[in-house]
Each structure stands twice: as structure tokens, then as C-alpha cells.
Amino acid sequence: METLEEAELCFPQLNTSCRKRPRSQTEALLIYTLMPCFSLITVVLNLLVIISISHFRQLHTPTNLLLLSLAVSDLLVGLLVVPSHILLIEPCWLLGDLACVLCSFLPVISVPATAGNMVLISVDRYVAVCDPLRYPTKLTQKTVKGLILLCWAFSVLYNLLFLCDNLRQLGRFNSCYGECVITVNGTVDLVIRFIIPISAIIILYVRVFVVAVSQARSMRSHVAAVKLQRSLTVTVQRSELKAARTLGVVVVVFLMCYCPYYGISLSGYNLMTSSSTNIVMFILVIFNSCLNPVIYTFVYPWFRKCIKLIFTLQILKSRSCYTKVLK
């Protein structure tokens, strides 16, 4: 008959085995119910964004390409990050040291990519609002595609460099058998993945806000002699400012969901992977990836129209990609 001590071990036959940590009912509810639900919703909603922008030619604009890239990174959060994180926070790791490193590496490619996409969206709005006349030539589709490719390439390279030590000597950071531990340079990670992107986003959007206020005052002070020209200019400017406000909401939501985790890191508190605090912080990250398509639904009429066309299977018709979804 097993003793109580043996029953608490991940591998009762091994003296070097890790001990199982019992979970509270609240933790179990968060991990096995709430996180999978958020994961499924995140995948479905972001898949709708990807299909909409990819299928309808009218939506192939530089700004929407950035939204497409963001949707891909959010999709990967729901598809890869959540399942792997559930495995990593289990009391016992049963899949071996190589699977531990791969399970830690493959999903988190999307996390730096999300921050990178947010920076690119801020740059897009900055150029569109602050330099509207040269925006079509500065940020062409080809340029934006190149920037997106660089963003994803950097994300992959960044994670490879951080995990090279873990790959060279598998399992050397484990204190017992049945544990999955990897190490990263916390200071460098904090600077590259949080401080630099967040600083860039805030600086760019503060500049966008200042210019937007200035433009709004300028619009009201135009003389009646150039009424027609003003009307055309105002239409363009209002369109760009509306897009800036919408994407500003996306950026603010991103900051609200990601700042708590990195705020804890800045405070010097060591966050254990399996701790309740880490689980709550991670749910905030999933919530951010799930919330972006919801924002598009409320703000963008074209997204609501695309969803209707997708669910009614209208996109299966020939030449449906040329359907006008923008007014």
C-alpha cells in the first residue's frame, strides 16, 4: 500500500521525483474551465478576422494587413499558448526535457510578435495622422508586408537566442525529476519585450493625440471661401482620426492586459509558473487576444458585414472576394 509521501510524488518509484502541489477549487476552475473557454473563443473570433481581411480584396489596405498580422498572433495565443501553458503549470511534467523546452519555446513566438504588431499599428497611425499627404507613399502594402515579416522574424530569433542555453543542456535547471524549468535573462526580456515597445507606443500615440487636437481646431477655423476643399480634406482627416481612435482603444486594451504581469516583474517579485497570481496574469493575456475582434465588431461595420457573409456561406460563391464590404 502506498504511503502518503509516495502518493504525493510525481514518480513514486524515484527518490528524486518532484512532489505534487494540490490545487484549490478556484485554481482548477480557472485552469480547466475558464482558460479553455477563452482559448476557443479567441481562436474562433480571430479566425473570422483572418478570413475577412484575407478574402475580401477591398480590405487589402496597409492598416488592415497590420490587423491581420495581429489577428494571427492572437490566434496563436489561443491555439498554442493556452494548451501549452496548461501543460506547463501542471504539478508534474511527464513529457521529458526536450518537450519541455519546445513546449515553452514554440507558443511564445506570438507574444513578442503581438507587441511588435502594436508598435507597427502605432507607427501606421502616426504617419497617417501626422503626415497624411505622404502616407500612401510611405506605408505601401509592400512596405507593410516587409515590416510584418521583420516583426515575426525578430520574434522567432529572439526566442531562439533566449532558449539556446536550455537546448544545449536539457533539464539542467530542474531541481527534481518531473519538473519543467527554463531560464531567461529577466532584465533583457523586460527591456526588449515590454519597456521598449510600450515606450514607443505611448510616445507615438501621444504625438497622434496632439496632432489630432490641432487638426480638429484647424478644421473649425477654415474660412468659407474654401468650403469644398475643406469638405474633402475633412472627410479624409476624419476617416484617419476615427481609425486612430479605434486602434487607440486596441492599444489601450493591450497595455491594460500586459502591464500587470510586467509590473510585477519590475517590482522584483518572482512569479512562479504554477502560482495563482501567474494564472490570473496569463488569463489577462488571453483576454486581450480575445477582446480585439470584439472591438472590431462594435467599431467596424465592414467586420460585421464580413461575419454575416461568412456565416451565410456567401464567401463560397465565385468572385465573392470582390464584394464591397466598405461603404
Automatic annotation (TrEMBL):
One of its GO terms (cellular component) is plasma membrane. GO terms for molecular function: trace-amine receptor activity. Its main location: membrane. The chain crosses the membrane at residues 29-53, 65-88, 94-123, 144-163, 194-213, 246-264, 279-303. This is Trace amine-associated receptor 8a-like. Keywords: Cell membrane, G-protein coupled receptor, Membrane, Receptor, Transducer, Transmembrane, Transmembrane helix. Belongs to the G-protein coupled receptor 1 family. It comes from the Eukaryota. CDD domains: 7tmA_TAARs. InterPro entries: GPCR_Rhodpsn, GPCR_Rhodpsn_7TM, TAAR. The lineage of its organism: Eukaryota, Metazoa, Chordata, Craniata, Vertebrata. It is found in: Cell membrane. Residues 45-296 form the G-protein coupled receptors family 1 profile domain. The gene is LOC114858713. It is a multi-pass membrane protein. It comes from Betta splendens (Siamese fighting fish). It holds the Pfam family 7tm_1.
